[in-house]
Amino acid sequence: MPGFEALGIDVGSTTVKIVGLDDEGNITWHLLEEAEPWIESQVVRFLDEAKKVNGPLDGVPLVATGYGRGLVNQASRQVTEITCHARGIYRELGHGGTLVDIGGQDSKVIRISQEGKVVDFAMNDKCAAGTGRFLENTARRLKVSIDNIGEEALSVSEEVTISSTCTVFAESEVISLIARGVPVAPILRGLHRSMLQRIVAMIHTVGLVPPLMLSGGVVQNPAVCWMLEDETGVKPILPCHPQLTGAYGAALLALGISSQEPSFT
Ligand code: ADP
């Protein structure tokens, strides 16, 4: 069974991800689950799962990131998502550029230098527009699964303009469009556009220095990638596991921590 030398955990607002690395920084194990309201007990369970794979975790450093990182008392260190996402993407792709991370309830744009340093960033964690939540809520209204919304949106070339950027008002707008007999796919396309225009505004704030790199669960949606290219004119690059980028970066930082530092059991 694969063991690991370091662990990174990303306690996001929607999902919790943990990654184990070998001594060369390769991912040997990971786990991803929806975030539960009782984060501390979920973290204990994740670490119990890690022990099943690795045996005792004495001396294995753990770095925590994400919105709930402060609740991970077992961590050797807690580090911001900005630093961890930048670290993870730079290690995997090997170059700087502009990283767009779209999570369940927040989104961020991070400009990374060719040396891997964070040059500038912008973050939206105040409003559901421009996050996965916007698409999830409206997809639920349309009875379309989150795994299919992207393909369905791309299945047509017509696009309905959604004028509401607010998630709550967009839901009402969707309901009235359906009541008027407008088909689902063009509405989905318009919803993606509305969500991504919020992201593109953030990209312009930080400045788009290509390549455009993506992370977060939402970028697994093909319409998100297609529309980002359509809006910016730059083809985005994805890591192998975009939803694990933050946890991967945290684990890489943990790998840099001396084994003399406090461990956890
Ligand atoms: P966070 O770190 O903020 O908890 P994640 O980066 O884990 O968020 O992303 C969670 C979001 O990703 C959710 O909004 C979910 O709907 C979306 N998501 C996950 N998988 C897919 C997929 N295959 N297609 C589209 N969206 C997805």
Question: What does this molecule look like?
Answer:
This protein has a five-stranded mixed β-sheet with strand order 3-2-1-4-5. It is of the alpha/beta class and 265 residues long. It is built from eight helices and nine strands. Strand 7 and strand 8 form a beta hairpin. The C terminus is likely disordered. Helices cover 39% and strands 19% of the residues. The chain binds adenosine-5'-diphosphate.
Main traits of this protein?
5-stranded mixed sheet, 265 residues, binds adenosine-5'-diphosphate, globular, 4-stranded mixed sheet, 8 helices, disordered C terminus
Describe the strand arrangement of the main beta sheet, using strand numbers.
3-2-1-4-5
Low-confidence stretches: 258-265
Total of DSSP H or I helical runs spanning 4+ residues: 8
Q: Give the class from helix and strand content and strand pairing.
A: alpha/beta
Biggest sheet details: 5 strands, mixed
Shape: globular
Distance between the termini: 19 Å
Give the DSSP E fraction (strand runs of 2 or more residues).
Answer: 15-25%
